[in-house]
Design brief:
The chain is an alpha+beta fold. The protein folds into two domains: about 200 residues, L-amino peptidase D-ALA esterase/amidase (4-Layer Sandwich), CATH 3.60.70; about 130 residues, PgpA-like (YutG-like, Orthogonal Bundle), CATH 1.10.3760. Helices cover about 40% and strands about 20% of the residues. The protein contains eleven helices and ten strands. The strands form two sheets. Strands 1, 2, 3, 4, 5, 6, 9 and 10 form an eight-stranded mixed sheet that branches. Strands 7-8 form a two-stranded antiparallel ribbon. A hairpin with a 2-residue loop joins strand 1 and strand 2. The radius of gyration is 27 Å and the shape is elongated. The relative contact order is 0.10. About 5% of the residues have low confidence.
Length: about 350
């Protein structure tokens, strides 16, 4: 890292190498492949007005630049690799009850974003071809690792919609210099990126729970309460009963067995709808599907015992409220959830 300096200011981060970088990037201001002295990450307004502040760039303006909404970054060292990870996060984890949390955003999930971006510097003199291999490796590792997390859909939809990447290496200081030989696999880029992503999520305190997965399916607690009330005589529907129902739902969502059954149903439905199981055609085979009812019966029984089985059959047959709009597996699991919670709420 000799000769490489990082300058931090309130409006940006400037990575400087007086001897020059060969840079391959998708930055807002770049030619794709550049020889530069400065790599600038800037909170930019009005077409990069901040680029003109002070003398962070050489007179020749030998820089590439990326605009961001905010500056948050950290640096990790992995052998010959120095990895700078930049974070933009509009998500906060709110306390919902003493046992439950939920992801939220003051911007709303339409405008919110989570971007995890990387600038990777290799203390070697590499060819453009090797630089491109490394750039592609970073993109593949990030995409594969984030996909493997199976995050809630509304979180995945806002993840890395505006991320950026740059790969930097040294520039030959004399004519006739031969490029360093490098095996991309020996650089452990995959481990570096995965470790950086894990650390990034930890720093942002981004964890997700059962309420987040319900939101991703478009299922709200209020909808579940309204659905539960539809098969109860109007004269018996009171604010007190609705509150009891809400309390029972929240208690259920903190039960590890209920969570397990719900997640099994959610994951199964996603596989069905994504046509990920060769033997199952959701347009044909599902008329022979009965195990979804087993899940519904199991969750009803877990919450309120055998007394909930009768209510499960009622809700499963009538399909009131939100149940009428859910796909088969989710319909049965939530019929069981509602049946169990209704049974306990009424018995209280």
């Amino acid at each position: 890292m000799f000769g490489v300096n990082v300058i931090e200011k309130d409006y940006g981060v400037f990575i400087n190498n007086p001897n020059g970088f060969l840079a391959l990037s998708d930055f807002t201001v770049s030619h794709g492949v550049d020889i530069v002295n400065n790599v600038n990450i800037i909170i930019a307004k009005d077409d990069f007005e901040n680029l003109d502040k002070e003398s962070d760039n050489q007179d020749e303006r030998l820089y590439i630049a990326q605009d961001v909404d905010s500056i948050s970054f950290y640096k990790d060292k992995f052998g010959d690799i120095t990895l700078y990870t930049f974070i933009t996060n509009d998500i906060v984890i709110d306390e919902f009850t003493d046992k439950l949390k939920v992801a939220n955003s003051p911007k709303g999930f339409i405008d919110a974003k989570i971007d995890i971006s990387h600038v990777l510097y290799i203390n070697k003199v590499l060819s453009k071809k090797d630089l491109l291999k490394i750039y592609k490796k970073i993109a593949r590792v990030k995409a594969k690792y984030l996909a493997s997390m199976n995050l809630p859909t509304h979180i995945s939809n806002i993840l890395n919609t505006n991320d950026f990447s740059a790969v930097l290496c040294d520039v030959p200081q004399s004519k006739g210099y031969e490029f360093d030989e490098v095996d991309v696999y020996d650089l452990n880029i995959g481990d570096a990126i995965e470790t950086a992503i894990d650390k990034c999520l930890e720093r942002m305190n981004l964890t997700f729970g059962i309420l987040d997965y319900l939101v991703s399916e478009g299922i709200l607690i209020g909808d579940l309460i309204d659905t539960a009330m539809e098969l109860i005589d109007d004269a018996d529907v009171t604010d007190e009963l609705r509150q009891k129902m809400e309390n029972q739902l929240l208690n259920a969502f903190a039960d590890i067995n209920v969570i397990t059954l719900l997640m099994a149903a959610i994951r199964t439905e996603q596989d069905f709808e994504g046509n990920r199981i060769r033997e199952i055609d959701i347009n044909e085979n599902l008329k022979y599907l009965h195990s979804d009812e087993v899940l519904g019966l199991a969750i009803a029984n877990q919450i309120a015992g055998t007394d909930a089985i009768f209510n499960f059959k009622r809700y499963n047959a009538a399909k009131p409220g939100i149940l009428a709009y859910l796909p088969p597996v989710l319909e049965d699991i939530f019929a069981g959830l509602i049946a169990g919670c209704v049974t306990k709420a009424i018995d209280e």
